[in-house]
Write a structure and sequence with these properties.
By secondary structure, the chain is of the alpha+beta class. Helices cover about 25% and strands about 30% of the residues. Strand 3 and strand 4 form a beta hairpin.
């Protein structure tokens, strides 16, 4: 699959803001693989979503998170580095390749911010995510 394209700011799917600036950091809300507010992939990794599809979806979700923090920061040049990222993976009980899925999110950040700006990361398997999304990503960045 090609690199996910993120060109429009993520639209909140509930009562929250896409990102918040506080104490020299910008924290994104949880972002799912959406384009123009529409979830582009649903399902459970290890059942009806392949690891490759989930990896691609994690990249799209990370791109959305990066766009949210970039807009809140006032531009990509205002971001010093990514600090922390959590990738939630909706998966079957026996699916354990969570880091491989999360690598899709890291790949997008590395391409856009550089390898030296990669964050610390957690990949967490969960039972459900908003709208039936297979992945959700939240991101914290430091301001320059």
């Amino acid at each position: 699959m090609s690199e996910p394209d993120v060109s429009a700011a993520p639209v909140p799917q509930g009562r929250y803001v896409p990102a918040v600036v506080a104490g020299g950091l910008v924290h994104s809300a949880g972002m799912t693989p959406r384009r123009a507010g529409t979830l582009v992939l649903t399902g459970c990794v290890g059942a009806d979503v392949t690891p490759e599809q989930a990896r691609w979806a994690a990249g799209l979700a990370a791109g959305n998170a990066l766009l949210a923090v970039t807009e809140a920061a006032g531009g990509l040049d205002r971001i010093a580095r990514a600090v922390r990222m959590t990738v939630y993976v909706r998966c079957t009980d026996d699916f354990t390749a969570l880091s491989a899925v999360a690598d899709g999110a890291s790949a997008v950040l590395a391409r856009r911010l550089g390898e030296d700006a990669l964050p610390a990361r957690a990949a967490v398997g969960v039972r459900a995510l908003p709208g039936g999304a297979p992945v959700e990503v939240d991101l914290t960045v430091a301001l320059a």
